[in-house]
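Student: I would love a firmer grasp of how sequence relates to backbone shape in proteins. I am handing you a single protein, as its sequence and its fold in token form. I am told such tokens are a discrete way to write the fold. I hope you can help me see how the letters and the tokens relate. Take your time, and here it is.
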Amino acid sequence: MLKWILVLLFIASALYVHFRGAVRHRWNRQLLDHSTFMAPINVLMYAFSRVPTTPFLDDPGRHFPELEPLRANWQNIREEARHLREQQHIKAASGYNDVGFNSFFRRGWKRFYLKWYDDAHPSAAELCPNTTALLRSIPSIKAAMFTELPPGSELRPHRDPYAGSLRLHLGLETPNDDECFISVDGQRYSWRDGQWTMFDETYIHFARNDTEENRIILFCDVERPMKFGWARALNRFIAKHMIAAGASPNMEGDKTGGFNRAFKYFYAFRLKAKALRERNKALYYGLKYALVAGVVALIVWI
């Protein structure tokens, strides 16, 4: 009986995640999306969140007053970001060691990690001392990076897997143009220098830069405030033991998390699967859904 209750709870959570927004993936994509597997935990995060669970949070400073020093010092932060760009340190991963953002690099997106669920990357502490000092003074910021979206580049629609944080974007060097924007659950926001926005990255979102100018922002994952101590402890446990394993290096000497150390082996398998899809789509999708059915059957049998 307990097994069937857990199965039904999982199904109900997955359906809730799928239907909670106005924008949804197709069923065949949602079935294998990482947000489906994280659905029961994410539903807990939504249920016990101390801040609204809307796509965008109006006025981040009201909900997170500790973040105000970032906005107050945005020009100093911008100078360090510009220096990094001039030195070509804001870039795509040099290998298959950034599982969380690997697909983004193919369409022009670039990044430089400042911290990832830990203290600053050594490269960031050396090259961006002022920004990393600011980040260190705000414990609720769990991850941060500079991200670049060059002219003509884009991020395809996706949702992030874990609802334990909220995403902060602070405009540093932007086109200041509505043709450079992010859309979260169908709602658009266009970046502006010195202005910020906060959104729930577990809604489907995408970004485009259809201008002739570059876009650089400070991108932060901020811990979601929870109503109860046990929910806060669960959130921090998952962040420490799962999300932190996604650490990716900027350069030699930076930490690479366990997920990213294993990613190169997974990606080799993925390349073979893509090759199979090109040769025989029917066989590829038949094996794909047979695998899903096998996992479901195993769960039910156990």
